[in-house]
Write a structure and sequence with these properties.
It is built from 8 helices and 5 strands; from the N terminus they run αβββααααββααα. By secondary structure, it is α+β, with helices and mostly antiparallel strands. The chain starts with 5 loop residues before the first helix and ends with a helix.
Length: 191
C-alpha cells in the first residue's frame, strides 16, 4: 500500500517506539473486525503522572503503524491527562500525517482507542490504590476535591477545561464533570 504523505511513509519505514514499555506498565489494546488490525500500546508513568515511555506493537497496515509511531512519540513527557486529550482527537493525527486513503481513515482512531485504554488501566490502578482522607472526585487521575478547590481558588478557574489543565481532573472518562461544576459553582457563588 502506498501512503499519501512523506511523513506517514517515513514513520512506517522507520517507526519509533516499537516494543514494550518497561515495567510497571499499563497496556491498552484495540482492534478492527473490518480490516483485522490489532494494536497494543504500553505506557510507563512516573509518580507525577508523566508518561516516561510509550511503546506499541501493531499487526496492521502502514497507516496504523505510522499513526502509532506518531502518537506514542507525542505522548512521551506529557501527563496522562494531556495524553488523554490527544487520544480524544484522532483527526489531529490524520492531519499531521497529511490524511489517509478513505479505507484507512479508522487507523488513527484505533491508535487513540488503545492509548485511552492504557490510560484507563493506569487510572484503575490509581483508584484501587487510593487511600487518601479526602473525597476522590476524578477517579481516572486520582484528583481529590481539595485539590480541585485549591486550584479553582488560587487560579480563579471558571471552566472545566481550565481545571483539567491545572490538575488533570476531567481529562479521562469525564464522569466527574458534574462534580467539578458543583465545586466551581460553590466557589463562584460565594464570590
Amino acid at each position: 500500500m502506498q501512503l499519501n504523505s512523506e511523513p506517514a511513509a517515513e514513520l512506517f519505514l522507520n517507526p519509533r517506539n516499537v516494543g514494550d514499555a518497561a515495567q510497571p506498565s499499563f497496556i491498552g489494546r484495540s482492534s478492527s473486525f473490518n480490516c483485522g488490525a490489532a494494536l497494543r500500546i504500553s505506557l510507563q508513568v512516573d509518580r507525577s503522572q508523566r508518561i516516561i515511555e510509550a511503546k506499541f506493537k501493531a499487526a496492521g497496515c502502514s497507516a496504523l503503524v505510522a499513526s502509532a509511531s506518531l502518537l506514542t512519540d507525542q505522548v512521551i513527557g506529557k501527563t496522562t491527562g494531556e495524553a488523554a486529550e490527544l487520544g480524544q482527537q484522532p483527526g489531529a493525527i490524520e492531519n499531521l500525517l497529511c490524511g489517509f486513503a478513505e479505507d484507512r481513515i479508522d487507523c488513527a482512531a484505533l491508535v487513540c482507542e488503545a492509548l485511552l485504554s492504557a490510560i484507563a488501566r493506569y487510572s484503575d490502578t490509581v483508584r484501587n490504590e487510593w487511600n487518601g482522607d479526602e473525597a476522590l472526585v476524578c477517579t481516572c487521575f486520582g484528583v481529590s476535591e481539595r485539590t480541585i478547590e485549591r486550584e479553582i481558588q488560587e487560579n480563579h478557574l471558571s471552566t472545566i477545561a481550565e481545571v483539567t489543565r491545572a490538575c488533570n481532573a476531567g481529562a479521562g472518562c469525564r464522569s466527574c464533570y458534574p462534580l467539578i461544576e458543583d465545586i466551581m459553582d460553590d466557589y463562584w457563588r460565594t464570590k
